[in-house]
């Protein structure tokens, strides 16, 4: 009986390992960038003017990079400007710095979450303009903006976290 269970277990393990081999479905891009696919269904409004996509995914095997919220801190002392646009620019620059540590760029970001203190339409306009300046090709990641009353530190006006993808 033990021999039968061992043989059955070995067969199932081998079958499972074989069934997980997806190399025959792999799409390998020619460059060192990920193959991000943005989806904006025609039955929903066009989100591109607002600097986001309804959904994103990837076409290759790899791993996700989860990036903690990046504030608008300008230096190693985390100096925070009182100006919202300045903090937005630095939060995006800080995001790009973390991405670069993995050999990635904004084109590899699948999803971002933005927390804005005392959000209003003027801040949304600034955010959108800076997103367009950062994502120059207009292939924006999926995005969620959450208005908040305050963030972790006094004077923080924005925080941006992200999920990026790095191919194998």
Structure description:
Keywords: Signal. The protein is an alpha+beta fold. The chain has helices at 2-19, 84-101, 121-134, and strands at 36-39, 55-58, 62-71, 109-117, 142-148, 158-167. It has one domain (28-167): RutC-like (60s Ribosomal Protein L30, Chain: A, 2-Layer Sandwich). Strands 3-6-4-5 form a 4-stranded mixed beta sheet. The chain has a two-stranded antiparallel ribbon with strand order 1-2. Helix 2 runs parallel beside helix 3. The model is unreliable at 1-32 (pLDDT under 50).
Q: Which features would summarize this protein structure in a list?
A:
168 residues; four-stranded mixed beta sheet; disordered N terminus; 60s Ribosomal Protein L30, Chain: A; single chain; globular; 6 strands; two-stranded antiparallel sheet; alpha+beta; 3 helices
Shape: globular
Task: Label the structural class.
Answer: alpha+beta
| H/I helix tally | 3
Question: Sheet bearing the most strands, described?
Answer: 4 strands, mixed
Number of domains: 1
CATH architecture: 2-Layer Sandwich
CATH topology, by name, is: 60s Ribosomal Protein L30, Chain: A
Rounded average pLDDT: 82
CATH class identity: Alpha Beta
- Total strand count, please? 6
Strand order of the largest sheet: 3-6-4-5
Computed CA radius of gyration, to the nearest angstrom: 21 Å
Order of helices and strands: HEEEHEHEE
Per CATH, the superfamily is: RutC-like
Distance between the termini: 42 Å
Low-confidence stretches: 1-32
Binned, the helix content reads 25-40%
Assess the beta-strand content as a share of residues: 25-35%
């Amino acid at each position: 009986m033990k021999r039968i269970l061992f043989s059955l277990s070995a067969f199932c393990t081998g079958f499972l390992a074989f069934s997980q081999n997806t190399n025959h479905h792999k799409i390998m891009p020619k460059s060192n960038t990920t193959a991000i696919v943005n989806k904006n269904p025609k039955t929903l409004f066009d989100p591109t003017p607002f600097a986001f996509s309804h959904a994103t995914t990837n076409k290759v095997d790899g791993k996700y990079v989860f990036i903690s919220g990046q504030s608008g801190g300008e230096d190693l002392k985390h100096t925070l400007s009182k100006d919202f646009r300045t903090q937005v620019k630095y939060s995006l620059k800080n995001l790009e710095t973390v991405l670069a540590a993995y050999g990635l760029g904004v084109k590899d970001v699948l999803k971002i979450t933005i927390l804005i203190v005392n959000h209003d339409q003027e801040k949304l306009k600034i955010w959108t303009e800076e997103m367009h300046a950062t994502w120059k090709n207009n292939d924006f990641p999926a995005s969620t903006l959450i208005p908040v009353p305050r963030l972790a530190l006094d004077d923080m006006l924005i925080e941006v976290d992200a999920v990026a993808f790095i191919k194998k």
